[in-house]
Amino acid sequence: MDLKIYDTSRRAKVIFEPREADKVGLYACGPTVYDRIHIGNARPLVVFDVLSRLLRTLYPTVTYVRNITDIDDKINARAKERGIDIRELTETTVARFREDCEALNCLPPDHEPRATETIPEMIALIERLIDQGHAYALDDGHVLFDVPSWDDYGKFANKDRDEQISGARVEVASYKRDPADFVLWKPSDGDTPGWPNPWCDKGRPGWHIECSAMSEKFLGPDFDIHAGGIDLVFPHHQNEIAQSCCAHAPTDRQDRFARYWMHNGYLMSEGEKMSKSLGNFYTVAELLEEFPGEVLRLVLLKTHYRSPLDFSKDKCREAKAELDTLYQSLRGHSASDLDQFELIVEGGLAVTKALADDLNTPSAVSHLHALAKGINRGPSQIYPVGSVSANTDLLEQKRILKASAKMLGLLQKDPEDWFKAGAPTNGPTEAEIEIQIEARKEAKASKDFAKADQIRDDLQAQGVILEDKPGGITEWRRA
Ligand SMILES: [Zn+2]
Rounded to two decimals, what is the model's pTM? Predict the structure, then answer.
């Protein structure tokens, strides 16, 4: 199956051809760990998690690398403001980031390198750039990339000279030879973190050099796909390309770095740019108090990754209802019953095909709904209802639905857990509910319908909804 992706550098949807037939390297820019992530940060996490799942289905070996930026002036400022150690701030933030990723059902990448663990590689890369005549060191310890030394600078981001300069910060630092030059290394003074280096006693890297060094460390100087948010195209990704292409001598230089570039679109919130003053700024942690992580994940996947996404709590409520419908169709079987399936059947392929078309997640989600609809119509007409074959057929369809949804990281919970999860502190426990359902059954059996109705109404008032199914079975869920 061909995988088509929209490549930012070619500005076209193209057929993906890996460097090596059965091996794919994927690098995505990760978080700067000074605060909890917001729903806008969650978008690339979820989108490129789906990409990594798809790549693993299509290729035998996939290496997914996502970095952690744990050196940054925002981190230093935040630690100072809170009166805590920088390391304490970054460690707690990384731990919380991982909790958020898990709640969003994002699988961990194969490598999650930290900037603080990649300093020697960054220094070596900067030294190569100086040797090749693409960077210069100043007496005060700054090292800058010499933009005019590389003719191709600006091509990737499609920025001409004027735009390059206006993008490079308002006030141009006096130490720059050219206003477009950018920082590779800077001196650290006082209690600002720093490392020994060839240019000053104590210094720290610029942000862009991090990703060039980390991607090369795990994927080599020439790899397959580099991903990130659209806001990173310029200057971050343009600068990564300049550094990585120029660091390699003409003999081993591939002029490539990453062969394909994928960028997710902007996220708005409640119709506006997300901002704390507008009250539409949501961290993932805040949203998780109100909605399961799977709901947030579905909201992020219902819009194609390249389109702008207008996030809202109404969309979360809609997605919750959709997941209720999908999980409802899987009910009657445990998660492990539903797992016995290899994703080689047509139902699974429909979703894979949608995703192989530049990650068409909206179409993949509609395939899930079509599968659920088929299941809810009941056993296939070719078997007499109630026969063993009819039930097997239905179970197979449910397995196809679960296997298909796995590609999107959805519907992997036990269906009963989905409906019964909630806030047990605010309502009766599972055992208490079961006792009430039993009492209602007995009331009905002794024709005390008033009592049976009373039990149902009481439970409803406590946020528990009963649904009577054929065969005297009562299912329940929390509202
Ligand atoms: Zn990066």
Answer: 0.88
Residue 408 has phi, psi (to 5 degrees) of: -95, 0
> How many Å lie between the centroid of ligand 1 and the Cα of residue 236?
6
- Can you tell me the distance from the alpha carbon of 15 to that of 394, in angstroms, rounded to the nearest whole number? 36
In the reported structure, the alpha carbon of residue 68 is separated from the centroid of ligand 1 by a whole-number distance in angstroms of 9
How far apart CA 370 and CA 326 sit, in angstroms, is 10
Cα(201) to ligand 1 centroid in Å equals 26
Range 430-449 burial, b when 16+ CB lie within 10 A, else e: eeebeebbeebeebbeeeee
DSSP state letters, 400-456: HHHHHHHTTT-S-S-HHHHHH-S-GGGS--HHHHHHHHHHHHHHHHTT-HHHHHHHH
What is the distance in A from the centroid of ligand 1 to the CA of 281?
24
pLDDT tens-digit map of 350-386: 899 999 999 999 999 999 999 999 898 876 555 555 5
- pLDDT tens track for 100-138: 999 999 999 999 999 999 999 999 999 999 999 999 999
Q: Which residues place a Cβ less than 5 A from the ion ligand 1?
A: 29, 211
Q: Look up the CATH number of domain 4-264.
A: 3.40.50.620
The answer to whether 227 and 269 have CB atoms below 8 angstroms apart is no
DSSP 69: B
The domain spans of the chain are: 4-264, 268-420, 424-478
> 268-420, what's its fold?
Four Helix Bundle (Hemerythrin (Met), subunit A) (1.20.120)
Tokens of 370: 């079509």
Task: Tell me the angle at which helices 361-376 and 313-330 cross, rounded to the nearest 10 degrees.
Answer: 40
